[in-house]
From TrEMBL, chain A:
This is ABC transporter permease. It is a multi-pass membrane protein. Signal peptide: none annotated. Residues 95-300 form the ABC transmembrane type-1 domain. CDD domains: TM_PBP2. The chain crosses the membrane at residues 101-122, 134-161, 181-199, 235-257, 285-307. It comes from the Bacteria. Keywords: Cell membrane, Membrane, Transmembrane, Transmembrane helix, Transport.
TrEMBL record, chain B:
NCBIfam families: PRK10419.1, PRK11308.1. It comes from Mesorhizobium liriopis. This is Dipeptide ABC transporter ATP-binding protein. Keywords: ATP-binding, Nucleotide-binding, Transport. Pfam families: ABC_tran.
Length: 314, 534
């Protein structure tokens, strides 16, 4: 297990290094002047020169790469060109919205999906199964922004329980901030839960059809215990895989839902940075997201090893 | 009162009859063999007793265990009976154990359910059970760390852990080599006799059960065709089907033309060796190489049929893979028609492959289910230097199918429409379509029923006589080797330890591995002869 852990960590670090090279290369080395790209075709030569100076574009490539990566490591990400604030502050501020939102959505979707999946699998073909999977089918089909609008209409406009959008910031108190995140969490979690419930059900049914289930039944384990004690753990590998993918999506792929709720999240930041050609922000946020995806994958790999002893030697 | 009694048991699956009025009984301390070919309903009978039939199955009739009516028992009652009073061992040891739990946990689980013991007691009992089945100290191992034979021992330990009165073993050794098979069957019988259990032993192989079962029940198409004392029944079968089975079990195909010595060998290997680097167990110790094949030298003459026999894991498949150019030898040489084979020499390899084809064990897994027979059988034709036209291709496939006894109308069908035996014919058709000089057959009949096995072996013998194809048969089944081979090579731990004509090797084995193989091979003729001598 120790060797497995060490090897995975090493692979994760190497991936991170490679990713930083690719991100750097794509944004800095490709033909075209980043400064001109950021300022547009009509920029004055003085402004261009000033920006080039500020971004350190005059220095050799290696120096720039090393400066950038050492900046990343010390969380000094430079200054945003459009916001004129340190990128690190910008990212932290957005992360304080996106991270709680992603964690809450993932937790909620897991809490819904796994029990529903187990329920459906244990009643394969019965009404409960058909009904819950029919609902899940609807959940998969509904676009999340439209679902978000429905939630706003119902809970914010009609019932007036929560605000329709915006984020007061954690400085305004924990409760108002959480209240602002309730609807976005629901809007993100429910469609994810629908997918995860279907995956859980399919993986469980697959596990329940294996020979070792028959062995367990033949030694006198009841139908329900066989599900909990033998099938569930074997079914968790695909579930963990999907959860990993969903968490990565929740961190950065939520720009549409963030827009519906006027949330200052990471998704909107990167979207705005791209449209405003704020390369410094794009570079840093992309790298941050790459790092978190690598971290999530590492955690998923570790969960495989915890679930299945055969994975520990790989 | 019988321990287990089945009366007029019928089972249908989706309305289709699977079992038709089975009568069967097992007494305490006795062994009853339930014999039949695949699809005859053997496993369904066993699962009916356990009440573990598939969801779409419906059963009628009566099943009683020591007087308890199993057909009308509640699910709760069944849970205490399963494992508690009836233990069951299944066929596939590789998939029958939960991969994420230690074997200790899996044995202790049944003990906790039935004997209501504490965790500690259950662990202790499980450890004792593992000692009894010959796996001491393996409580904390996971299934993937064990071999097939060891896993089957674990299955037996699970089935016997709560001291049931009846043990059902459904083809417990079909996936194992003969030496392990003997060990497992001995273990089952010893456990049954020391605990006074009734044993219902299910097998497709008469030879396996002949010297172990007190009684035999022969099943065909879901009905009992014959039933009686084992030796009497096998010696003088009353039903033609039983007679057919006994004949198939001991029949040797006639070899119309025996091989005559040739001047130069077709295939030769010289000191062929293959090392595998084992998984590193720790970063501190160096990797240990594992020698799968050690200086194997063999030679096959044109038209000669050579059998390579040995236990699972002795290196015979690795040797075959190297000859086929699918694996790289660590050292040594392979000569085909006098020319050395190298993996780098694509052209030479292609030429050799045209003359050297292969038939694999599993007739189900070796075909792409989405391709027609015509495409599948025509596959090796790409090795020809020139492309064949559509008509010519069609003709070649039809000819190959005719050679193996399949009609040309099979051409547009798909693999799933064929039975196991027919699929193996397809595999042979695919192998002979290039008119090869050598066919390497890796356990080509071990997945087939005895009657079909005999017919496929006859086909091999016939093709050898008509087309002059040489064979390298890889098998752990000495009956097969005896049936088809001019020469037998016995392999053990990577070495070829003994070689000679089949009559010499099998009747007067010289080395320990050969002796062990011969002693472990079930032989119906020998068993019946022994019993008539008494």
């Amino acid at each position: 297990m120790g060797a497995f852990l060490a090897r995975r960590l090493l692979v994760a670090l190497l991936t991170l290094l490679l990713a930083s090279l690719v991100v750097f290369a794509v944004l800095e080395v490709l033909p075209g002047d980043p400064a001109r790209l950021m300022l547009g075709m009509n920029a004055s030569p003085e402004a261009l020169a000033a920006l080039r100076e500020q971004m350190g574009l005059e220095q050799p490539l290696l120096t720039r790469y090393l400066a950038w990566t050492s900046g990343l490591l010390s969380f000094d990400l430079g200054r945003s060109y459009t916001y004129s604030v340190p990128v690190s502050a910008l990212v932290l501020e957005r992360l304080s919205v996106s991270l709680p939102l992603a964690l809450a959505s993932l937790t909620l979707s897991t809490l819904i999906a796994i029990p529903v999946g187990i329920f459906a699998a244990s009643r394969r073909g019965a009404t409960g199964d058909t009904l819950s999977m029919g609902l899940a089918q609807v959940g998969v089909a509904i676009p999340n922004f439209w679902f978000a609008l429905l939630l706003v209409y119902l809970f914010a406009v009609w019932l007036r329980w929560v605000p329709a959008g915006g984020f007061p910031g954690w400085g305004a108190g924990v409760w108002p901030a959480m209240k602002a995140l309730i609807l976005p969490t629901l809007a993100l979690a429910l469609p994810q839960a629908a997918i995860l419930a279907r995956v859980t059900r399919a993986a469980l049914i697959d596990a329940l059809d294996q020979d070792y289930i028959r062995t367990a039944r033949a030694k006198g384990v009841s139908r329900s215990s066989v599900l909990w004690r033998h099938a569930l753990r074997n079914a968790m590998i695909p579930v963990a895989t999907i959860m990993g993918l969903q968490f990565a999506f929740l961190l950065a792929g939520t720009v549409v839902v963030e827009n519906v709720f006027y949330l200052p999240g990471l998704g909107r930041l990167i979207f705005q940075a791209i449209t405003q050609r704020d390369l410094i922000v794009v570079e840093s946020v992309v790298m941050l997201l790459v790092a978190s995806v690598i971290l999530i994958n590492l955690l998923v790999d570790l969960s495989y090893a915890l679930i299945d002893p055969r994975q520990r030697v790989a | 009162m019988s321990l287990l009694a089945l009366q007029n048991l019928s089972v249908t699956i989706d309305g289709k009859p699977i079992l038709r009025g089975i009568d069967l009984s097992v007494e305490s301390g006795r062994t009853v063999a339930l014999v039949g070919e695949s699809g005859s309903g053997k496993s369904m009978t066993a699962l009916s007793v356990m009440r573990l039939l598939p969801r779409n199955a419906a059963a009628s009739g009566t099943i009683t265990l020591s007087g308890i009516d199993l057909m009308h028992a509640t699910e709760r009652q069944m849970c205490t009976l399963r494992g508690g009073r009836v233990g069951m061992v299944f066929q596939e040891p590789m998939t029958a154990l939960n991969p994420v739990k230690t074997i200790g946990e899996q044995i202790a689980e049944g003990i906790r359910i039935h004997l209501r013991s504490t965790f500690r007691e259950a662990q202790d009992r499980a450890a004792g059970m593992l000692d009894r089945v010959g796996l001491p100290g393996m409580l904390h191992r996971y299934p993937h760390e064990l071999s097939g034979g060891q896993r089957q021992r674990v299955d037996i330990a699970i089935a016997c852990a709560a001291e049931p009165e009846l043990l059902i073993a459904d083809e417990p050794t079909s996936a194992l080599d003969v030496v392990i098979q003997k060990q497992i069957l001995d273990l089952l019988q010893n456990l049954a006799s020391e605990r006074g259990m009734g044993l219902l032993l299910i097998s497709h192989d008469l030879a396996v059960v002949a010297d172990r079962a007190d009684e035999i029940v022969v099943l065909k198409d879901g009905a009992v065709v014959e039933h009686g004392k084992t030796i009497d029944t096998l010696r003088t079968p009353a039903h033609p089907y039983t007679l057919e089975l006994t004949r198939a079990s001991s029949r040797l195909p006639a070899r119309p033309r025996r091989h005559e010595a040739a001047l130069s060998p077709l295939l030769e290997t010289r000191n062929l060796t293959r090392d595998y680097v084992e998984r590193r167990t720790s970063w501190l110790t160096p990797r240990q190489p594992f020698r799968a094949v050690d200086s194997a030298s063999l030679s096959i003459e044109p038209g000669q049929s050579v059998a390579l026999v040995g236990r699972s894991g002795c290196g015979k498949s690795t040797l075959a893979r190297m000859i086929l150019g699918l694996d790289r030898p660590t050292s040594g040489e392979i000569l085909f028609e006098g020319k050395p084979l190298h993996l780098e020499d694509r052209q030479g390899l292609n030429e050799a492959r045209r003359a050297m084809q292969v038939v694999f064990q599993d007739p189900y897994g070796s075909f792409d289910p989405r391709q027609t027979v015509e495409k599948l059988v025509a596959e090796p034709l790409h090795l020809l230097p020139q492309r064949l036209g559509k008509a010519e291709r069609h003709e070649r496939v039809a000819e190959a199918l005719a050679q193996v006894g399949l009609s040309a109308e099979s051409l547009s069908r798909y693999p799933h429409e064929f039975s196991g035996g027919q699929r193996q014919r397809l595999a042979i058709a695919r192998a002979i379509i290039l008119r090869p000089k050598l066919i390497i057959a890796d356990e080509p009949v071990s997945a087939l029923d005895v009657s079909i096995r005999a017919r496929i072996l006859e086909l091999f013998a016939d093709l050898n006589a008509r087309l002059g194809v040489a064979y390298l048969f890889i098998t752990h089944d000495l009956q097969v080797a005896r049936a088809v081979a001019d020469e037998v090579l016995v392999m053990d731990n990577g070495h070829i330890v003994e070689r000679g004509p089949p009559s010499n090797v099998f009747d007067r084995p010289q080395t320990e591995p050969a002796k062990a193989l011969v002693a472990a091979t079930p032989d119906l003729g020998r068993t019946l002869a022994q019993h008539s001598a008494i």
